[in-house]
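JOB MANIFEST
job_type = single_chain_structure
chain_count = 1
residues = 212
[input]
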Amino acid sequence: MQWTLVIPLKPLTQAKSRLADTAGDGVRPGLALAFAQDTVGAALACAAVSDVAVVTDDERAARELAALGARIVPDAPRDGLNAALAHGAAVVREIRPGVPVAALNADLPALRPAELSRVLTVAAEFPRAFLADAAELGTTLLTAAGDRELRPAFGIDSRRRHRASGAAELLLKGVESVRQDVDTGDDLRTALTLGVGPYTAAASAGLLIPGA
C-alpha cells in the first residue's frame, strides 16, 4: 500500500514556543523549519509513501519544502491543527480519490524511513490507526484507509482521544524515530541522541541543550 502523508506546519514565527529555554526567538523559526525539512525528507524516502502534502501558509517553509518534493497545500481553514489536517486530506483525495492518508507531525527530525515504513505497513491492517508519541500522551501519526475519513484529534491528550474515536493504537517496538517529536529542549536532546537529519544537525549546532 502506498500512502500520502499530510504534514501540518504553522507559521514558523509561531512554532516551537516551548523551546524558548533552548533556542531564542531568532533561532526557533529556523529550527522548526529544519525539523520539518528532515521529517519531509525522510518521509519522501520511505518505500511505503507515494507523496507528501504539507499544509502551511508560511512562504519560506512552503518554498523550502517544495524544493524537497513536497506538495504544498495552503491552510485555507486557518482554524488550527485539526482543521488543517482535515483540509489537507480532502485536497489530497480530490486529486487521488480513495488514497490512504496519514497525518504525520512536522517535528520528527530523527525520523527513519524504514521505521516509518514498518509503522505504515502495520497501520494498513486497520481502517484507522495511530501511533502515540514518546511521552505516551500525544500522537505523532494517524492513518485512514481509502474509504475512511481521517478524523484528526491532535492536541493535548490526543492519544486518549484518538483511541476513543475508534482508531487502533499501534503498539510497536523499535520505531522510536517515528514517536520522538520535539517540543522541549529535553525532546531535542533525545532526538539528537537517536540521530537527527542534516538540517536539524546544522540548525541545532551551538545550542545549549538540556542534558547534552
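[summary]
The mean pLDDT is 95.
Strands lie at 3-8, 49-55, 71-73, 101-104, 128-132, 139-144, 168-169.
exit_status = 0
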